[in-house]
Write a structure and sequence with these properties.
9 helices; 7% strand; alpha+beta; Glutaredoxin; 4-stranded mixed β-sheet
């Protein structure tokens, strides 16, 4: 069985979990503490998740490469490049959600401090992200309106595709942001993806 090393909050990890579920591939889940540098470095030479370890001991740690490896029957066809859209989503979602991620069951005191120190070094103080939340919310809502116009019922498709996993994985963290609420259409879209992918965001935290 494939072992998946991942963080619960990480959208790149979430997209792989969605793919496992959609493709109905069993796997062993190993959630690492965010301050655990030793494990990923020993497995692949750098602190980077998600990471899978195959039965033969080989490892792979790029989310899209992992999904491509899992999708042996090419069920997740993709003819659309939405990399710019995903970057745009990340530019709004990350500043909004990161200050709340650290208070989920995934983090303990040590990993919480590690995460905050790391992210504040690149994104700025969490208190400033919070102060600027309305700016990020405005940008996010504009982007979501653009996405909604292309849902048919999935993103430019009548069936779930890779694009939907990429979009959903970035948006899922917004459920923990109290100042934000998805539209009815977007919430339904995400819940359908959740059902088809048999996905529970913090499942491992409650087992």
């Amino acid at each position: 069985m494939i072992t998946l090393y991942h963080y619960l909050h990480c959208p790149f990890c979430v997209r792989v979990r969605l793919a496992f579920g959609l493709l109905k591939i069993p796997y062993k889940s190993v959630v690492l503490d965010y301050d655990d540098e030793k494990t990923p470095i020993e497995l692949c030479g750098k602190k980077m998740l998600p990471l899978i370890k195959n039965i033969d001991g080989t490892t792979l740690n790029e989310s899209l490469d992992i999904i491509k490896l899992l999708d042996k029957d090419s069920l997740l066809n993709s003819n659309i490049d939405i990399s710019d859209l995903i970057k745009e989503l990340g530019s709004f979602v990350h500043p909004l959600a990161m200050p709340y991620f650290i208070y989920t069951p995934e983090f303990n005191n040590k990993s919480r401090k590690y995460f905050q120190d790391k992210k504040e070094a690149s994104k700025g103080p969490f208190k400033d992200l919070y102060k600027n939340r309305n700016m990020y919310l405005l940008g996010l809502n504009k982007t979501l309106n653009t996405i909604e116009e292309k849902l048919d019922p999935f993103y430019e498709s009548d069936k779930i595709q890779l694009e939907d996993l990429l979009i959903a994985s970035h948006l899922w963290g917004m459920y923990i942001v109290p100042e934000f609420q998805f539209s009815v259409k977007m919430h339904k879209y995400l819940q359908v993806i959740k059902e088809q992918c048999d996905f529970e965001y913090h499942k491992e935290s409650w087992e």
